[in-house]
UniProtKB/TrEMBL annotation:
Protein name according to UniProt: Fluoroacetyl-CoA-specific thioesterase-like domain-containing protein
Domain Fluoroacetyl-CoA-specific thioesterase-like intervals: 24-126
Organism: Nocardia terpenica
Upper taxonomic lineage: Bacteria, Bacillati, Actinomycetota, Actinomycetes, Mycobacteriales
Length: 135
């Protein structure tokens, strides 16, 4: 049994894209992060790209395991204002043992607002929780 089969059948998800739709609210804006601009904040945009990546592989994760974000290399390219609905995309492009690499992007209408990559690690849920208790 390979590590990938033990952790989940992620090859089945390769090159599949999941899109998450999100309407920007006041809680999502940079104003909530100490900036005085009423635009979508970068931390929220990055989180939404992680959410899309999680959903892309969720059906393939075996019970007792989960994915966690371990790296981002993304650029926030354009602003998005409160009330706009954005589309966040994640495509699984590489499986390397327990590491899953995604191409991520987001659009506000015709405008690309995020482009980059996100890496997630597949971990044992219970073992991770036990390590948290020991901290």
């Amino acid at each position: 049994m390979t590590a990938v089969n033990r952790l989940g059948n992620f090859e089945a998800a390769l090159n599949q894209t999941v899109t998450v739709e999100h309407t920007v609210t006041e809680k999502d804006t940079a104003m909530r992060w100490g900036n005085d601009l009423p635009v979508l904040s970068t931390p929220v945009l990055l989180w939404l790209s992680e959410l899309a990546a999680m959903r892309a592989v969720e059906p393939y994760v075996v019970p007792g395991w989960m994915t966690v974000g371990i790296a981002h290399d993304s650029s926030h390219l354009a602003p998005s204002v409160e009330g706009n609905t954005i589309s966040i995309n994640a495509t699984l492009v590489d499986v390397d043992g327990s590491r899953l690499r995604f191409d991520v992007s987001a659009e506000d209408g015709e405008t690309v607002i995020l482009a980059g990559s996100h890496t997630r690690g597949v971990i044992n849920s219970e073992r991770f929780r036990q390590r948290l208790i020991l901290r």
